[in-house]
Amino acid sequence: MIGVHHVQLLIRYVLAPLVRLLWRPAVHGADRIPAHGPVILAANHRAAVDTAFIPLVAARRVAFLGKAEYFTGRGLRGRLMASFLRALGYIPVDRGNARAGLAALAAGREVLAAGGVFGIYPEGTRSLDGRLHRGHTGVASLALSTGAVVVPVGLRGTERVQPVGRLFPRLARVEIRFGAPLEFSRYEGLEGAPAIRRAVTDEIMDAIADLSGQTYVDSYHRRPGETLPAAA
Q1: Element (H, E) at 227
Q2: Which entry of 33, 40, 106, 149 is 20 to 30 Å from 208 by CA?
Q3: pTM, rounded to two decimals
Q4: What is the Cα–Cα distance from 72 to 81, expressed in whole angstroms?
Q5: CA distance 131 to 129
Q6: How far apart are CA 61 and CA 87, in angstroms?
Q7: Residue 216 region, left (φ>0) first, then alpha (ψ -120 to 50), else beta?
């Protein structure tokens, strides 16, 4: 029976080298990810493949959130999919209820409390207009409550690898830039202050904008048919 450990070996020794061979991603600053301790990788989000590219070029295992239904498929195909996602570091979270946001933060805190690396997209969704939008303050809550350092990440070109609506990725130039780690110990004990969470989030988004080269707009991203969240 194929277990998560076997899939991890397959990803490390077969899939990751294959991705580097086919897409030849230009990776800058990967050594800026601390080798030990809790780390948050905060990135811009242009395509579904972002969540695959980041773990495949990072030296440490990166945990991302994944829809719970991806892990519940039946039969051999369903078990293989679940094993593959767990090997990549995905954490199943039910996003279909009102407590999804709290569950996501709880999952992130668990990873960071164990000294792991947690990946997050502060915008909350993929950018459909190519701009970098205002970040939600969950990333700040995680950093302040766990003491984790934040490494900003700028992804370029992944929207050409898998444009919205395209099922299979295509070959295109990809660039992944890791920024200098940001630490916020100066705000210790102030996690509950909305103004502090906003200041921390804005500092992270400024760093992401520098790395991604995107135009920053100080408004939350809204997909067609969505209502804007309350300001934070």
Answers
A1: none
A2: 106
A3: 0.86
A4: 9
A5: 6
A6: 9
A7: beta
Note the residue count of the chain. 232
Half-sphere exposure of 45 (CA within 13 A, CB side): 20
Both tokens of 178, joined, read 């890791």
Side chain identity, residue 54: I
Q: Which of 15, 107, 4 is nearest to 63 (CA)?
A: 107
The residue among 98, 190, 176 whose CA lies nearest residue 143 is 190
Q: What pLDDT tens digit does each residue of the chain (232 aa) get?
A: 455 555 566 667 677 788 888 888 999 999 999 999 999 999 999 998 898 899 889 989 899 887 666 666 677 766 776 776 777 677 777 665 546 667 788 889 999 999 999 999 999 888 989 999 999 999 999 999 999 999 999 999 999 998 777 777 888 889 999 999 999 999 988 889 999 999 999 999 999 999 999 999 999 887 655 544 444 4
- Three-state DSSP state, 67: strand
DSSP sequence for 161-226: HS-TT-SS------EEEE---B--GGGTT-TT-HHHHHHHHHHHHHHHHHHH-PPEESS----TTP
32 CB burial (10 A radius; 0-12, 13-18, 19+)? middle
